[in-house]
Design brief:
The protein is mainly α. It contains four helices and no strands.
Length: about 140
C-alpha cells in the first residue's frame, strides 16, 4: 500500500468499524432487529478483528514522552479481544442472546478505541492489512 493510500485505508477501517458497532448496538433480544445466531457470531469475529487493529493503532499513537496518557481502553481491549466464544467451564449454552450481548460489549469497546483515536487526530494510525481474527 502506498503512503498516500494508508490514511484512506485507515479511515475506511474506522468507518467500517463504526458502522458495524452502531448496527450491533441497536440489536434487541426480542425485537425486529434481532440477528440470527450466524449474524451475531460473524459480528463478534469482525468486531474482534477491527478491535485488534484499532488497539494497535491506539498503542502506536501514544507518545513515548507521555506514558501516563495511555488510554485506559487499551488495558480493557487487551484483556477482552480475541477471547473464544465458548467457555472452558461447562455448562455453557451458546445462545443468540449470549452472542448478541458479547457482540454489543465488543461494539462498545470498539467505540471506545475509536474515541481514543479521534482524541489525537494528528497521528494517522497504521491499521495494517490484516482483516482476519486469529485467536
Amino acid at each position: 500500500m502506498t503512503a498516500a493510500a494508508a490514511p484512506e485505508a485507515a479511515e475506511s477501517l474506522r468507518e467500517k468499524a463504526r458502522t458495524l458497532a452502531e448496527e450491533v448496538l441497536v440489536w434487541a433480544p426480542d425485537g425486529e432487529d434481532r440477528p440470527s445466531l450466524d449474524q451475531a457470531v460473524a459480528a463478534v469475529h469482525q468486531l474482534n478483528a477491527y478491535g485488534e487493529r484499532l488497539c494497535d493503532a491506539v498503542q502506536a499513537s501514544v507518545r513515548p514522552d507521555s506514558p501516563d496518557r495511555t488510554p485506559a481502553v487499551l488495558g480493557e481491549a487487551r484483556g477482552r479481544l480475541g477471547q473464544p466464544l465458548t467457555s472452558a467451564v461447562p455448562p455453557f449454552v451458546l445462545t443468540t442472546d449470549t452472542i448478541v450481548r458479547r457482540a454489543q460489549n465488543l461494539a462498545r469497546l470498539v467505540t471506545g478505541l475509536l474515541s481514543a483515536l479521534d482524541a489525537d487526530p494528528s497521528t494517522p494510525p497504521d491499521l495494517g492489512e490484516n482483516t482476519t481474527n486469529t485467536p
